[in-house]
Amino acid sequence: MKNSDISERLRINIASTVIRIHTAYRLRLLQVFMQAGIDITPDMYFVLKHLWAKDNGSRQQNLADKTGKDKASLTKLLENLEKRGLVNRKTDERDKRSKRVWLTTTGRKLKEKVYPLALSVVELTEQGVGHADLQQAQSILETVYNNIKR
């Protein structure tokens, strides 16, 4: 393969598109949250989204795995969520080496405001794309993710 072919192949690939989409999605989420006066970042939203799905708290390591964050980044995010009064961290009763993260009442209530905003961003991203195409894209991207995760 010629150098020009290699350069072109590296320039135009699915990862580049996914990164552009991810960046644009995060920026739009931030914009929508800020316009609504909600003081959270997209990364905080992704953590909260996992906590909202569970009602019994979550281990910090599980949150790190679900959000793709390393321990240090997640710890910083959780500190900021605690400062905002949205979560509490406590030592896990079953495993004293672990911490569990719990939503506060304020954190649980925030879901009612944030979910419609997040849904508006999802609807914007999916505009003009058919359901079957979205399902196929999801399936393809899951395959790409599993390939790179190995």
From TrEMBL:
Q: Which Gene3D superfamilies would you find in this protein's record?
A: Winged helix-like DNA-binding domain superfamily/Winged helix DNA-binding domain
Ranges for domain HTH marR-type come to 11-146
UniProt keywords (A-Z) are: DNA-binding, Transcription, Transcription regulation
The keyword Transferase appears for this protein? no
- According to its UniProt entry, this protein's organism is Chitinophaga terrae (ex Kim and Jung 2007)
* Protein name as catalogued: DNA-binding transcriptional regulator, MarR family
Q: Which SMART domains match?
A: HTH_MARR
Q: Where are the transmembrane segments?
A: none
One annotated GO biological process: response to stress
| Molecular-function annotations in GO | DNA binding; DNA-binding transcription factor activity
Recorded hits in SUPFAM superfamilies, A to Z, give:
Winged helix' DNA-binding domain
User: Does the UniProt entry include the keyword DNA-binding?
Assistant: yes
Q: Which PANTHER family match?
A: TRANSCRIPTIONAL REGULATOR SLYA (PTHR33164:SF64), TRANSCRIPTIONAL REGULATOR, MARR FAMILY (PTHR33164)
Domain of life, per UniProt, equals: Bacteria
